[in-house]
Design brief:
By secondary structure, the chain is an all-beta fold. The protein is built from no helices and 16 strands.
């Protein structure tokens, strides 16, 4: 697996080696110095994605930062809050009729933020600190795993999007987006079983600090 992250304690996301329709960790979008970010505004290309936001005004940030989570690897992630936000990313997918699984990591350090995600015309979902259960996005600056299943009823082009409607101070990050058929290539379970969570023995990383959004 590309990297190890914290989900309360050190967690490894074990996934199949088979290729997925989307296997996105944001490393290939640009090369940034450590502990830095680059702003992208609405309409700009973002790797295989397009930025959601007001052109030349609002959008997202590509971040290379060991915060949040462990410092065991590089790492790149997307801040939907942007500099400034709000913003998001969207990507068109040519899909066949069938069942698909989405999995991704998210975090926030601001209770006002939410993430709206889904496939346009099929199903959308909101996660935030104000919701409970599987839709709760904790305000603890730790990565949390979210999964969703989609039933595509006919062949066609569909837009997969991740958006936050709020701007202001704080971060709302996403990373490690996996999307594939529910059975995976060749009938393998490409989007986990469902995401094997192996709790590491390294223990907790001390006191992840809350911080204001980068100026």
């Amino acid at each position: 697996m590309r990297k190890t992250l914290l989900l309360g304690c050190l967690v490894t996301l074990a996934v199949s080696s088979q290729a997925q329709i989307i296997n996105e960790g944001f490393e290939g979008i640009d090369t940034l110095p450590e502990n830095s970010y680059k702003a992208y505004t609405g309409g700009q290309a973002y790797g295989n994605w397009k930025v959601v936001g007001t052109p030349s005004v609002t959008g997202i940030d590509l971040v290379r930062d060991v915060w949040p989570g462990s410092a065991l690897g590089s790492d790149y992630w997307t801040d939907l809050a942007g500099t400034p936000g709000p913003g998001g990313i969207t990507r068109d997918l040519n899909l066949k009729k069938g069942t698909y699984t989405l999995a991704f990591l998210a975090f926030t350090n601001n209770g006002a933020y939410q993430i709206d995600f889904g496939i346009q015309g099929v199903e959308s979902r909101t996660i935030s600190n104000s919701l409970v259960g599987a839709d709760n996005l904790p305000v603890n600056a730790n990565w949390t795993l979210f999964t969703e299943e989609y039933e595509i009823l006919s062949d066609g082009t569909y837009a997969l999007s991740f958006v936050t409607p709020q701007g202001g101070n704080g971060n709302v990050g996403i990373d490690d987006i996996l999307f594939d058929t529910a059975g995976g290539p060749g009938g393998q379970q490409a989007v986990p079983e469902p995401f094997t969570l192996a709790l590491g023995a390294a223990g907790l990383v001390s006191a992840l600090r809350r911080r204001r959004h980068r100026n």
